[in-house]
Design goal:
Arc Repressor Mutant, subunit A, 2 domains
Length: 180
């Protein structure tokens, strides 16, 4: 059975042909467990266990209506699967903001922020944000360079910095506007 034109673009996300079919179907419309079961030739009680990981990840929303599960894709999943908000998309937007190509260190740091897009990178009592990133990147980028990139990204709006009134930055994350 064909997986619709989405299958090749889904391949980085799903190992299973059945899961690929379910997501391709859910990209078009919400569906009952029974519909999804028929699509992949299984019992409806097998649908939630197959989709549980994606429900926990926030990609699928499961609603119960009259004791029947209705599944739909979250907006984040729709963006990712439609190609919006991919790292390449974020990289292009960052380069447009800066009016130049990013160098390898900047790309590595942007990728790190993109991969951690749902959490803040925080400073601790005895470590700066740059030091925490330096360790998480296994010291691939020199600490001074990380500080410089963070400063450039903050000034240009590529990252959002949560500051105290005195200007001290407590935590950072990638600007959500780049993910849209």
């Amino acid at each position: 059975m064909s997986t619709a034109p989405f299958s090749s673009s889904f391949s980085p996300y799903f190992k299973s042909e059945r899961i690929t079919r379910l997501f391709a179907y859910l990209l078009k419309k919400s569906a009952k467990a029974k519909e999804l079961a028929e699509l992949i030739h299984t019992e409806s009680k097998q649908i939630y266990p197959r989709l549980r990981r994606y429900v926990l990840k926030g990609w699928i929303i499961a609603h119960k209506i009259n004791n029947v599960n209705i599944y739909s894709l979250s907006e984040d999943a729709r963006k990712i699967l439609s190609g919006k908000g991919t790292f390449e998309d974020v990289l292009k937007k960052a380069e447009a903001i800066l009016h130049r190509k990013l160098d390898e260190d900047e790309i590595e740091l942007l990728r790190f922020l993109y991969e951690n897009k749902n959490t803040y990178i925080e400073r601790s009592a005895n470590r700066t944000i740059a030091e925490n990133i330096y360790d998480k990147l296994n010291r691939k980028i020199p600490l001074g360079r990380i500080e410089e990139i963070l400063s450039d990204f903050t000034e240009s709006g590529i990252i959002f910095a949560f500051r105290l009134r005195n200007g001290m930055i407590l935590k950072v994350r990638i600007n959500k506007k780049l993910l849209e």
